[in-house]
Amino acid sequence: ARGNAQDQNKPTTIHLLPEFSLKDKVIVVSGGGRGVGLTQAEGLLEAGAIVHVLDRLPTPTADSDFAKVAAKAEKLGTSITYHHIDVRDQAALNEIVGGIADQEGHIDGLIAAAGIQQETPALEYTAEDADKMLGVNVTGVFMTAQAVARQMIKRKHKGSMVLIGSMSGTVANRGLICPAYNASKAAVLQLGRNLAAEWGEHGIRVNTLSPGYIVTSMTAGLFEAFPERKTAWPEANMLKRLSYPEEYRGAAVFLLSDASSFMTGADLRIDGGHCAW
Ligand code: NDP
To answer: Residue 55 belongs to what domain range?
Structure first.
């Protein structure tokens, strides 16, 4: 009987803390056409945000994952818009991001997730390979953040940015041959700290989010080439498994919302406790 009485008093609705809400916040997500970026964009929509994706994938078809997320956005009473762009193109970034700010009136946040990975032994690397990697993963992230900050500062509108780094920015992965990728992710961490220092006076927070191994098309390619990694990589963290894009949604909402209002220049590392052998 006691149990029943307790059940009757149980609240039927769960109230989340209001500071986690992204209601009506306008968030730009680079690399949001698929993978981690698209999954994070879905999380932002669930939290009430209006999302604009920048990606170089061909315009999404009606049966694409992006289209499914767009349909969900409509049901939630919000929207996700696709903009085709290469984030290395500074002029195009300024034009598209400026257009988003004109259309929406302001921009509140950014997730910079556009990134590439290439495995090549260090001695075989060409200068072109290295430039390409740093061009997308560092300069592309920098220029995307710059285009968004320009609009925030011009409109005197404070905001929050999340640059996607990687645990590979601080560890040398066992059995993974990607010196330029790891160097690019180390650069993202330092870029984030410096942008945070420079833009803090404008109320712009900048943090990095460093994931561990995630099951996406990026890692699928790495598993195809070296199947033994499927068992070796989970062994390298405390939870003994790989992670999924959904496990980074909540962190994105936290970092972009007022729940993290005093957090800037920091790195949030989510890697299942990746540890040295
Ligand atoms: P995906 O390759 O699945 O998605 C990345 C998206 O970014 C793709 O749509 C890609 O397009 C796009 N993109 C790449 N270069 C550019 C460019 N120059 N301009 C515009 N868009 C571009 O990768 P993930 O979702 O796995 O990774 C997302 C982020 O997370 C990356 O920064 C990655 O480094 C990071 N990360 C991933 C981990 C993992 O295990 N997967 C672990 C730690 C960090 P296209 O396909 O044409 O290249």
So the answer is: 19-269
Residues 6 or more apart whose Cβ sits within 8 Å of residue 113: 29, 30, 31, 32, 35, 36, 37, 40, 164
To test ligand 1's pocket by mutation, which of 52, 54, 55, 161 has the most ligand atoms within 8 angstroms of CB? Answer: 55
Q: In what side-by-side order are the strands of the sheet with 80-84?
A: 80-84, 50-55, 26-30, 109-112, 159-164, 204-211, 267-270
Q: What is the pLDDT of residues 14-49, one digit of tens each?
A: 888 999 999 999 999 999 999 999 999 999 999 999
ipTM: 0.99
Q: What is the number of the ligand 1 atom nearest to the C-alpha of 38?
A: 25
Please report whether residue 114 resides in a domain. Answer: yes
What is the pTM (predicted TM-score) of this model? 0.95
78 falls within a domain: yes
Total count of domains within the chain: 1
Instruction: Please report, for the domain that includes residue 202, its CATH number.
Output: 3.40.50.720
